[in-house]
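hey so u asked for the seq, here:
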Amino acid sequence: VYQQQVRVTVELGESFDAGRYTLTYEKLDGRAGSANGVETEAVATLTVREGDRVLGKLQPGRRFFTNFPGQPMGIVALRSTWREDLHLFVQGWDENLAAEFQAFVNPLMIWLWAGAGIYVTGGLLAFGWQSPHTREQRTTPPTPDPVRSGPPDAV
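ran it, structure tokens below
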């Protein structure tokens, strides 16, 4: 029930484990940027397996900007299930395309979002959906009861 993390450097074709997943580093590609000052992107492709079953591919990477070439931004790859989230970052690579990856397996994250939804729904039910008549009753001061309001008892 706790976060698991791993930071490894692997060559093309090598694998590493992160929690119950096995990740295999397939390739590192460069592609031209598309908008918002992005000059280029470097994206790694990793195959995600659980045992012998292939679950899919993740593509973490780095974005390089025209105005800030020395300050790349990470592209985080995410695999989310009801059981846990797998976050994958590429930290860097060398001239032989050996890459350093950091992976986090965060259990039960979807339940935090579900709990937040329940919390907001409860707040709306408690405070948001009151009829105008109910609000009016709460804001008007009580009127004195004519039967009980008379002269004070003399002693």
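The chain has a mean pLDDT of 83. The CA atoms of residues 11 and 98 lie 4 Å apart.
lmk if thats what u needed
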